[in-house]
Automatic annotation (TrEMBL):
Belongs to the GASA family. It holds the Pfam family GASA. It comes from the Eukaryota. Residues 1-24 form the signal peptide. Keywords: Signal. It comes from Helianthus annuus. InterPro entries: GASA. This is Gibberellin regulated protein.
Length: 100
């Protein structure tokens, strides 16, 4: 039983690493990632990204600023910033995240 558990755990780790490698190399689908947008697509993607926040105006302002620089907006309404490193790594003077 211990061998089965060890093999199962190693298989899960290997699959996770493979998925992360494919994701990081741009092998993911769906139009997300660095440079995946044009500047004209930013308003629509930021509207989607900011649609569920109570702070819509600041979210839209900073999202569009980040999108113009990075040419990508992460999928979903929150998180998933690892898909767009530029969006994820741009920080405020205080060290907090600049992009929503």
């Amino acid at each position: 039983m211990a061998k089965f558990f060890a093999v199962f755990l190693l298989a899960l780790i290997a699959i996770s690493m493979l998925q992360a490698t494919v994701y990081a190399s741009g092998g993911h689908r769906g139009g997300f990632g660095p440079g995946s947008l044009t500047s004209s697509q930013c308003p629509g993607q930021c509207t989607r990204r900011c649609s569920q926040t109570q702070y819509h105006k600041p979210c839209m302002f900073f999202c569009q600023k980040c999108c113009a620089k990075c040419l990508c907006v992460p999928p979903g309404f929150y998180g998933n910033k690892q898909v767009c490193p530029c969006y994820n790594n741009w920080k405020t003077k205080e060290g907090g995240p600049k992009c929503p």
